[in-house]
Write the structure tokens for this entry.
Amino acid sequence: MKKLFSLALFLFSTTSHAALNVFACEPEWAALTQQLAGDKASFYTAAGALQDPHHIEARPSLIAKARRADLVVCTGAELEIAWLPVILRESGNNAIQPGSSGYFEAAQYVTMLEVPARLDRADGDVHAMGNPHIQTDARNFLPIAEALGKRLMRLDPANAAYYQQRLTEFNQQWRAAIAKWEQQAAPLKGVPVIVQHKGFPYLNNWLGLKEVAAIEPKPGMEPSAAHLSQVLGTLQQHPAKMVLRAAYQDARPSEWIAERAHISAVIVPYSVGGTPQATDLFTMFDDTIARLLAGLK
Amino acid sequence: MSKKTCLSAAIAALLFHSFNASAASDPDLQAIREQIQQLKQSYEQRIAQLEQRLQAAEATSKQAESVAAQAQANIRQVSAAQPAAASRSGENAFNPAISLILGGTYGSLKQDPAVPVTGFAMSANPGHEQGFNPGESELKISANIDADYRGEATLALDPAGGVSVENAYVQSSALGNGFNVKFGRYFSGLGYLNEQHAHAWDFVDQPLVYATLWENQLGEDGVQLKWLAPADTFIEVGGELGRGRGFPGSDRVKNGAGSSVLFAHIGDDIGIEHSWRVGVSLHKTRAADRISDAVPDLNEALVSNSFSGDSQTAGLDFVWKYAPNGNLRNRYVKLQGEYFRRKENGLLTYDIAAANVTDSFGVTQSGWYLQSVVQFMPRWRTGLRYDRLDPGIASVGATPGFNVISSYAFQPTRTSLMLDYSPSEYSRLRLQLAHDRSRQGLPDTQLFVQYIMSLGAHGAHQY
């Protein structure tokens, strides 16, 4: 009986010490919220850094976590369209439905790139609102942090001063870090690269990498052998220095290309936890730039 | 304008001064000089004032020009943005999400699909289609109705040309606190597979236990209420009150509920790679004059029987999924199984066309399946499913007892092997081979080729 009771207690235990229950879709948003909310919030992340955020399932555990969330922080721009709507609906939690203050979409606060001029599935898995992989440009975190900080203050006014202070601190540190990263990444300017998935426009835009080709024939489509040889052909005309892939992507296509074209295959952490070195937002970019620079050699 | 007048006035004054100077006497001259001096000063003052005002006026006009230029630029921006805004306004602005599934199957069967599963002739027999048929096409329309309600309708396109309403329900989580209400026509929440639409099935057909006990899927007209516990583990309980429209109900016309369903689900993750869900369900309904045609009897004839009585079904279901690193995109394994057991008790009328004799009838039938689907590389999946049914032994009253088969001493089974390939998120091609031993003495090897294509909005899938 006692065991059963403690099990029930365990199952129903609420994290009462933390004011806010935050459900983050991707690790980078959990990390950002952590930066801004400190110990005033507890976190749950739906997608791991080694999981493709397009292809998460509306697992029972996710629905249970959303049920008790005060704030959902996601990328938006349709990145989570295949699973988040079901989770939100099934959660029976009306505090986190789209449109309510408990629902935060990061993509609303940055300038979207690759917004398609025409919407056609013949072009692959394109997103109507633009490329959703906004977290690869460090500069995007400034407006998002600003908006997220304000949202935290609105949801938890009692700790508003604390959030404001953390936001100011983050802003200062992040601006200094951006300056440092941009300086470190100077040799990457104009370097031609190929990418596995069209997931790097923000990174390229920031650091000035030049995308020569993509291994996926269309966004979200697996490359065929014929397409891979076509990419090799493109590489002969427009040689690239390296091939980029996100940590969660299948290694084989980019390694196949890298081996044949004698260029380096670079894994970009893409999110916090994508590589062992990327333990928070700062180290995520440290590691991204370190790996890109290593790819130059 | 005023500047010119002032200048000419000043010049005139000066001329006047020089003209008078020669003619007048000294004291007069002095007075006149003073007067002129005053005049001159006042004119100079006025001229300076006017010049200032002019400069100010010029500055304002410049400002006005720049404001006008900006306004023009704004107008240009606005007009550039106009087409997008316009396309989002008007009557079609709030169009719901529309998704069309185009599905089709080619079936090659050796046996007549109309022959029911042995021991389940009084159950549903959705069977299979032979040859080419556009079986699984459906049109789904969904949108938020307002802040509280969401509506969804699914129209199924029947191969014969008709349209049937598969789903048409309103869903609301306005109650909050983990409550979810659904009302209208929906797929019942019992079991694991029951709520899934045909395009999300992992095999061409439903497991035998679903085909015979639920006529593939139990659709209900009614109300569903679910509650999710505020726990870290997924614990959900739900209940439904329905019309009892689908098999095993018989759509009796009456007030009140014709069927009820209770279900509970528990689920969670184990680490980041494993997830699972277990469920129990209970379904109760009453059949009135539920007619089954072509039921074999002890005289080896096919007759039509009618059943009236209670039907109770209990079910167990589980699903377990595994993906390396939890990354479903590349590779995953899914294992699922369900068991249903149905008890029916009531009155059976044997051979309504001729003998037409009625007496008590009771039977407990059950069935289960176990299946596994493996995505062994991106886009490619294979699956294996085993089905087994137990027709049970019926207790039949004395009068029809001489004619009704009460025991078949045969357990229908089927093994299906599936391979599918998805060129993209929105398309899937499937090949399925089945070794069917569900009909005594009529073993069948079945081959199916299927396509499932999704157009338009691509809704999220359930677990």
Remarks:
- Residues 10-178 of chain A form a domain with the Rossmann fold fold (CATH 3.40.50.1980).
- The first strand of chain A starts at residue 20 and ends at 24.
- Confidence is low (pLDDT under 50) at residues 7-16 of chain A.
